[in-house]
Structure formats: C-alpha cells, structure tokens
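input
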Amino acid sequence: MDNKKMVKGANPYMPLWEHVPDGEPRVFTYNGETRIYLYGSHDTKKTDYCGPDYVAWSAPVDDPTNWTCHGICYTASDGGDLYAPDVVQKGDTFYMYAAENRGSSIMLVTSKCPWGPFENPVKTELGFDPGILVDDDGKVYAFWGFCECHAAELNDDMCTIKKETVRRHIIGHSKPFWIKEDDGHVIPEDGFFEASSPRKINGKYVLVYSKRYEYPRPDLGVFNSCNGFLSYQWSDSPLGDYTRGGDISFNGGEVITGPDGNGIMTYQWGNNHGSLMKVKDQWYIFYHRQTGCNEYSRQAMVEPVDIALDKDGKIFIGKIRYENGEPVSSDVVDATSQGFNLNGLDAFSLISAGYTCHMYDGKGTPMYQDNAEGTNKDVRVAHIQPVYEGDSSPVVDIQSSATIGFKFINFGDTGASKVTLTGSFPEGSTVSVMTDSYDGKVVASAKTESDSSEITIDLSETVTGKHALYFGFNIVDSEQRAVFDCFTFD
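output
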C-alpha cells in the first residue's frame, strides 16, 4: 500500500487536516488564470468556533481536485475570532468583508490579489454573516443577519449603505426556541436562520441561506429542530420580494430508509454555510460538515447540483424532478464522498476512511443530534477523528453492526478482486464489504484471528464500474470498538 497515491479532492475537497467552514466560493480570473477561490472562517481553536485568521485556497477550474493553500490572507485587527467572510471583485480590487469580534463587527479589507494579503480595515455598516452581490450593472448589494435577514444597496465605497434602499426582513425568518415572541416575520415553512449568500443565476436573484427547521422532515430523519440545511429563495430584482425556493444541501450524510419508512441520517448534522458557484459547465453547492463530536472542526464539502427554469420563470435548484421535460420540484442533493471526482473515487488509490458519508450503527439509533449539540458527550458513536496533519483521518469508535459507507467508488472496466483495510480491528472481528447499499450484496467477508492493524480480503467476484461501497463490522465484545483508517483495492 505504501506505493499507492492518496485520493485527493474528494469530499471534503481540501486536505483532511484542513478545517475551513462557512466557505463562500468564487471564480476569479487573475493574471490570465481562472481559478475557484474559497474563503471561509478557520476552525483552529479546536474547542470553540473558528480562530483569529482566514486562509485562502484555490484550484484551477480545469482540475478542481487540485487545491492550493495560499496561506493566511487576513488576521483579525482586534486579535479576536473571525466568523464567516465574503469576498467579491470590482474592477481590479478584491473586497473582503471580514467578520471580526465573532461576527459583530464587519470590516472591509482590500487587496489587488485574490489571495491577499487583505489590508486597511474599515468598519462597515453591515451585520452578521455578510453576503455581497456585484450585479451586472456594477451596483453592489449586501445581505446580512442572524435569525432575521436584511439587505441594502452599497455606496461606491463598498462600505456604507444607501439608507433609502434598506429592506428589513427581506425574507421571513425561523422561530428558534430562544425567540419568545412572533414579530410578524416568522415563516415556519422556509425560515431564514443565518448565512446570507446572494447569487445571480439565469437572470434570477437567488439568496442561499441556512434554514432552521422547527418542524419534522421525517423523510430526511429530522424530528426536532435542525439547522443543517442550505436553502434558497429567489426574486426578479435584488431587493424585490423573494419567493420560496427549497432546500439544496443537508449535512446529515446519506439518508437511508428505516424500518418504519422514515429517513435515518447517517452523519451528525450541524450548522451549515456555503453557496452556489458554476465551475465551467457545472453548478455546485459548497457547504460544510462536522467532524468529531462537536462543531469545532468543520470541513469544506461540495456536490453537483442541477438548475432549471420552468415556463413561468420559476427557478429550481438541487435534485430536480421533471415531468414531460418540465421541472416541477427540487430537493436536497445526495451527500457523497466523491466531491469533484464525479466519476467516483479511484478504487485502486489509497482512500482515507475520513471520506465516508455514511456511519450507521445498524440499530436505527440516531447517531447525530445529541453529540452534535454537545449534550450527550459520553455516547460512543462512530465518528471521524479530526486531524491537523497527515493525509488521513480515521473513523473511530466503530461498534458492532455498524456500517461505514462511501459514495461512490470507481472500479473501472477491469475491476477489483481483493481489498485491504488498515486501522485497528479487535480479535474475532468480522469485516464485510457490500456494494450499492449498506444492506446490499456482500462481495467479501473475513474474520480476524488476532488483533489486527491490516486486513486483506479476497472478493467473491470481480467488481467493476461505479458503486456505492459499504464496510460492515461485527465485533465479538460489545464493549470493544474498531478504528478504520484507509482502504484500497487490487
């Protein structure tokens, strides 16, 4: 296995040691090269949200699996924590809206280079989670807010607001438990929570934001309040009336169907922030997920999305359902392991278990909410161990009957005949390999004769093509746990 290359640019698409949530993707052309740029807050504190600096990452649009870190592009002028930023270009200048003092002071900093350094901080009139839109006519609009969404046009200084353009509560908001009274702007069906991100798509003004569900979505395994979604509303003008769109992304992992017909999340949900960006001919939703058992080591994720207009001009974004060639509805796209590798991850490379999008205990027990919110820290469920160096992050605390899954793996036309896993597997453990579903066809199975750090298993048949892949674990001692680090096929 030592001579095999590690998969890169999967999901998460940055190295597994990097933790950049709240990412606002942008495509800029600089010095003749067009690249995707990602600016986000930076989870470096490990025991709390974010940290005191931003880093800039980029990848060429011709190879979005090949990400480069440009280093720190801005450090908080007050030495405090920086929350979610946004960066736009106007003319030859790049404008960063840096959320200092945990998002309560939005500072405008500028650079002539897309990766900074960004300098000369000036306090703006904007609020929490600013999102900026530079329109085709050069006008600039800002959206901001927490549990309420406001918007306005900016003056030419890119910093101050044209007071006569302010729209308070441009879309309605959710009503989390800490808001005791309904202020008249609550819309339970599609309420705003945070993470404003405006885009102009196919002539429509689209506002991507974090939505907090305060009612059940049993098809997705949501039965309590949950803000793991990115959703959208749209308008025909930037500060006009917005129309309900739908949900685009959900960071609860692969959703499987339980015995009662309801969905079961297979990943711990947590807060979400990101946006849409077109890379060459494909639109993507950029979002983030959690690792560990809290929200302090988040990772940047991406999925392709479909976008379409119906005959009446309504815009659909996400996983779209068509009838007679006409879009009629959309829903969240699938959570995958492949990221920008749209043909699936190369089965014959070395793949970290940290790319899993499915961690299921096999018993129908939720593996996500209590741990994600920090209220049940003693529960030992399978989770990705955050790492801050090295190429792999293992899945730890794997209990008996659990499955760890990946969507998707590409075995090519020739196919694979054996698989090797590394990690820590207790004596008497049985490891099985299933294709296409966590309870699907078993193509390999083996039992460890002793405590093992590496297992090689012959497949019962040659596997070819692109498949979802699942590893099942049966551990004799119910108190023992396995660790799954990497796998590869031959």
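quick obs: The longest strand covers residues 452-463.
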